[in-house]
Design a protein that fits this description.
Elements: H1 11-22, H2 27-34, H3 38-55, E1 56-60, E2 74-81, H4 86-95, E3 101-102, H5 106-115, E4 120-124, E5 153-162, E6 167-168, E7 184-195, E8 201-220, H6 223-231, E9 237-240, E10 243-246
Parallel strand pairs: 2-7, 4-9
Antiparallel strand pairs: 1-2, 3-10, 4-5, 5-6, 5-8, 7-8, 9-10
Helix pairs in contact: 1-2
Amino acid sequence: MYSKMESTWSKEQIASGLRLAGSGVPVVEVTQMMGVSLEVFSAWKAEYTELFDKLIGTFPEPKQPNNVTKTVGNRRMAYLSGSVGGEEVERELRECKIRYSVIENAVAIAGELLRSGNVLGNFQKPIYWKDFPSASRPLLGSSQMGQAGESLFILVSAQLVNQERGSPQSGASRGEAVLSGVFSSEIDELRWRADLAGGNQIDEAIIRDVAVKFSLDGILDGPIDAIRAFYTSPMDALLLGNFLIKKSDSPSGRA
C-alpha cells in the first residue's frame, strides 16, 4: 500500500503539497507546481487518510449518559510517543546548532504547553491500536490494521480548541498551514506513551476532557526532516523523545 507514496518526491514534500491543498490552494495548482497528476496526488491523500485513521481510537464514554440526548457517547483518543532514538536526535540538534532542552517529565511539559495555547508537535513512530490488548481497542474500524507505515516516523501536532468559537485558542491563522479535513480531527483525550528499560511502558494522560485538535503533519525519514518541517510549520514547540525545541528560543546555542 505504501509503495504509492514512493516517488521522486520526498515524504516531506508530499506532506507540504497536501498542506497547501488543505489550506485552500486549488489542487490543480498544487499538482502543476509539483509536476504530478491528479491521480498521483489523490493516491498520496488516500494513503495519508488511511494512516491518520489508524492513529485515533474511539472508546465508550465512561461518564453518565448525556442529559440532552440520553445516550452514552464515545470518546476519541490519540497518543504521543517518546520512543525515538535519543543519540541520533541529539546529534542532529547539535549539528544544526539548535537550542534545546532535555526534559524528564514529558507529560507535564506537554500539558503545560497545550494549556498555554501552544501548537505542540511530536516526532514519533506510528502508534496503532492493534498494539493494545483487545479489551482496550477502539470500537469503530481502527482495530483492523495493516503493516503500512510501521517502519516510518510521523510528525503529529496538537492544540486546544476554543469551544466557544470553534477555532484553535492560539488564533485562526495558525490553522492555515496544517493538513485539514481528514488529516485533522478533534479528540477528547491525548495520552503519552514511552518505552522504558526492561520492557516496561509509561502510559499517562497528557490532557483529557477538553477538545484537542489532533493533526498528521507528515511522514518522515528521520529527525532532521522533523526539525526542518517544524520551522516551516505553525507549531510553537516540538518534542523529539526527551528533547524539546521551541521557536521562542534562540536558534543557536544549547538550553
